[in-house]
Amino acid sequence: MTKILMTSVRDDEQAAIKDYAQKNNIEIITTPKLIDEAVDLTTDVDGLVIQQRSRLPEDIYAKLRANGLKQIATRTAGFDMINIKKANANGLTVTNVPAYSPRSVAEFALMQIFRLLRKSYRFDHQVAQNDYRWFSDEQSVEIHTATIGIIGVGRIGGTLAKLLKALGATVLGYDTNPRTDLDGIVQFVSKDELLKRADVVSLHVDLNPTSKGLLTTKDFALMKPTAGLVNASRGPVVNTADLVDALKNGTIAAAALDTFEGEETVAAADRREKGLDDQPLVKELHAMNNVILTPHIAFFTNLAVQNMVDFSLDDTLAILNGKQSSHEIKL
């Protein structure tokens, strides 16, 4: 019987994993550990499915090859935690799940856009201190009167654009490959024009060498002082130090961050006792009353979790059976 190891497994994934194993007559071993700590479990399995944000140790690829593995499937869209070239050099085919549910992240980004437009972050902080007043600078903006800029108009960005258009918002888009199928929905403009005109900028780009540090001080300087930023893509797309300065100085009004630099040691972690002293920029963001922080959970819906399990296991079985996967990552 085919045996597959899945690492970093959460309780909410177990039902989907059990169902898949029964339907496909395979054995699936699960562990909450990262593959870094569970490599010994690969000595007696045929396939491997991982999920993590921290980079894999450079010596792990040779270990997996020595244990007879032929592939690594990450049940995430991002794959920057894997050294693809080193994996390939060790005979390991790498796959990801590029579209587990574009709607899940798009809906989350839409919620955050609403929260920024309605300045709920201000009221959250005030009410937490039993201050129930409201002030003239907290007057909000109705979405059908707003201009929303989407940087990265792919599967997720395009889905968000359709939701925004249905609500009457003006939608600007910036992408290296503008989509003609979104004519009448998105007005594609330059990055600078988008930053200057948008009431909220929402980021939906992959993390790659060209997108790392995509927004810095000079970009924030172009934005309206009343504008907000949503990041539900990857943390390093934004220079966090520059963002902190922009938020402190009033260069922009607010930010809703589901992803942020330093999240690999913060997201999914209990920091109630340890605090954030080892991540000073995250600590600063956490303390601000114009920042909404969430722990990389934009994807976290019923459909998305099901698809992440199913698609990653489909890819694993395909490769183990000598077939190709359309999700294979090639550099």
Helical residue percent band: 25-40%
Q: List the total number of helices.
A: 12
Number of strand segments = 12
Question: What's the shape?
Answer: globular
Distance between the termini: 33 Å
Q: Could you name the CATH topology of the largest domain?
A: Rossmann fold
Structural class: alpha/beta
Radius of gyration: 21 Å
pLDDT below 50 for ≥5 consecutive residues: which ranges?
Answer: none
Q: Which strands sit side by side, in order, in the main sheet?
A: 8-7-6-9-10-11-12
Task: Supply the CATH class of the largest domain.
Answer: Alpha Beta
Main sheet characteristics: 7 strands, parallel
Q: From the 3D coordinates, which CATH architecture of the largest domain would you assign?
A: 3-Layer(aba) Sandwich
SSE topology string: EHEHEHEHEHHEHEEHEHEHEHEH
CATH H-level homologous superfamily name of the largest domain: NAD(P)-binding Rossmann-like Domain
* Average predicted local confidence, pLDDT: 96
The overall number of domains is 2
Our estimate of the beta-strand percent is: 5-15%
Summarize the structure.
With 331 residues, the chain is an alpha/beta fold. The protein contains twelve helices and twelve strands.
Notable characteristics:
7-stranded parallel sheet, single chain, 12 strands, 331 residues, 12 helices, Rossmann fold, globular, alpha/beta
Structural commentary:
This protein is of the alpha/beta class. The protein folds into two domains: 3-100 and 302-320, NAD(P)-binding Rossmann-like Domain (Rossmann fold); 102-293, Rossmann fold (3-Layer(aba) Sandwich), CATH 3.40.50.720. It is built from twelve helices and twelve strands. A seven-stranded parallel β-sheet has the order 8-7-6-9-10-11-12, sandwiched between helices. The protein has a five-stranded parallel β-sheet with strand order 2-1-3-4-5. Helix 4 (84-89) links the parallel strand 4 and strand 5. The mean pLDDT is 96.
